[in-house]
Amino acid sequence: MQRYDFELIASWIPEGARVLDLGCGDGVLLAGLAATRGASGYGIEIDDANVLASVRHGVNVIQSDIEEGLAAFGDDTFDFVILSQTLQAMRDAGRVLGEMLRVGREGIVTFPNFGYWRHRLDVVRGHMPVSKSLPYSWYDTPNIHLCTVKDFEDLCATVGARILDERVIHEGRTIRLLPNLRGSLGIFRFRRP
Amino acid sequence: MNDAAPRSVGAVTPQRAGFLEPLILKAGKTLASYELVYETYGTLNAARSNAVLVCHALSGSHHVAGWYADDPQKVGWWDNLVGPGKPIDTERFFVVGVNNIGGCHGSTGPASIDRATGQPYGASFPVVTVEDWVASQARLMDRLGIERLAAAVGGSLGAMQAMQWTLSFPDRIGHALVIAAAPRLSTQNIAFNDVARQAIVSDPDFHGGNFYAHKAIPARGLKLARMLGHITYLSEDVLMEKFGRVLKRDEYGFNYDVEFEIESYLRYQGNKFAQVFDANTYLLMTKALDYFDPAKEAGGDLARALSAARAGFFVASFKSDWRFPPSRSREIVRALVASRKNVTYAEVDAPHGHDAFLLDNPHYHRLVAAYMDNVALEVGAGERRTPLATADTELEEMRGYAGRGEPREGT
Questions:
Q1: pTM of the model
Q2: Which residues of B touch A73 (CB under 8 A)?
Q3: CB-CB under 8 Å, B387 with A55
Q4: Is residue B327 a contact partner of residue B319, using CB atoms and an 8 Å limit?
Q5: Which residue in B156, B168, B307, B329 is the catalytic one?
Q6: Among A15, A108, A141, B297, fewest CB within 10 Å belongs to which?
Q7: B62 backbone φψ class: left, alpha, beta (φ>0; ψ -120 to 50)
Q8: Are the CB atoms for B260 and B243 separated by under 8 Å?
Q9: Which CATH number is correct for A4-113+145-191, 1.10.10.10, 3.40.50.150, 3.40.50.1820, 3.30.420.40?
Q10: Chain A residues with at least one Cβ partner in B under 8 Å
Q11: Over the stretch A150-186, which tens digit does the pLDDT of each residue have?
């Protein structure tokens, strides 16, 4: 899967930052940030194959459930905590956001926008959406908490996260007109109020 | 990928090194002189940067890999992990296995002759600790011309030594592979160890540890200790699967003879062990386990204790290990993270219990291979050999893994 969010995330990370990547996948984001930004930190990942790939990429990967793994980190340990296309699989997304703000100075969250027009059209036609950004069928999806860009704004307000930057993109392009309808991927940067 | 299939290091020969400089032990006693028996595999490179020390657990030895020309059946205890093309690849690394002081495989131990008396040490052999072992291993590295280890690797009690290396000699070790470990024993662990020790010391043939002079062996006690230990090294599931409630005869005998297969198996394992292992060494090894507690000197704060380390850490646990369960490894990881160390942690889904660290498990071995690949790159011991992505064939093997290897030796 092409990760259009990685480039934008990388542009936000300053030289030498300490980064926690929640659900780090094969570790390429962390490996890239280490190589291009001299960033250091850890990735949390539950899947065996991804843990192996992360080790191969030479990143500090810790095999754990995200919600459990976050508890292992002290307050203000990181400059950035990244949750890239994983929010929708969290049991308690609000609590995870709160924990991100506890262990990190800033949080970055990216997620598939359920408000994207194709998704809406699928629902209007009577089906759960299946798309490039939501590739699973309803019965085998890990995505238990899908939301729209507007929903996420509301969640930030609820948990007291101050939004610093908000983008909605589609296939790498930033959508400025009707983003919640035309964009498939939401990308938010936020911090404590 | 590696072109050649993994092979054995082949026939190996143990070597000896004598040390006349006294070793001051943590217990306050001094070992005036001692000998270490060790084996090496692979070649030390010109930069002397590719040395890997393999530390053994309770019943292991210096014989890590390969076999003996005069005894081809005697295969090293971690032969599945160490060899050409294996996860700890002897084509890239110079691997050293050493029998620890107090052991019974050739290094100075309770059964050795005390030069001061001309008699076996027996009960007078001092209690040694993980710290003492690491100090003696460092002297062996000096002798071999190794200023800095690329890595120290161990499982269980061996993992404790790898961890201790990073604290005793932070500048002399690049990486520690800490497998199936605990930062210190739990109350339950110590309790098991004491029952094992009581089995030994209460055997009439123990003679207060001086059984050599009586030409006796406390075999009954040692057998019981091993039987108890063996149960704790395996998971309940693996015992159930392997032996179930199968009887040696068709019907119950309503007596106290050996009836269930598991009884027969444990007695066989216990007897076999009692014939080759030294009772005093067993006592000493279990004490070394009990005493290991790096956090103790930091007021119980493991993170503070580990802050002295400079090495990178690879920590792995096995989900079915109830002797040193994943929660204990997570304590180590949490402390390393709190002190901002480089650490990788994997929780391996293996059914075998504590013994899993000794057994073939494709995922576990790939993790070690991947980590060691990065170590090799770092110390200039070779190019990358593993693919960056996880291949489909690897995924299939990972999912389909239900390996049921023979139980081995634990702790």
A1: 0.94
A2: 337
A3: no
A4: no
A5: B156
A6: A15
A7: alpha
A8: yes
A9: 3.40.50.150
A10: 26, 42, 48-64, 72-74, 77
A11: 999 999 999 999 999 999 999 889 999 999 999 999 9
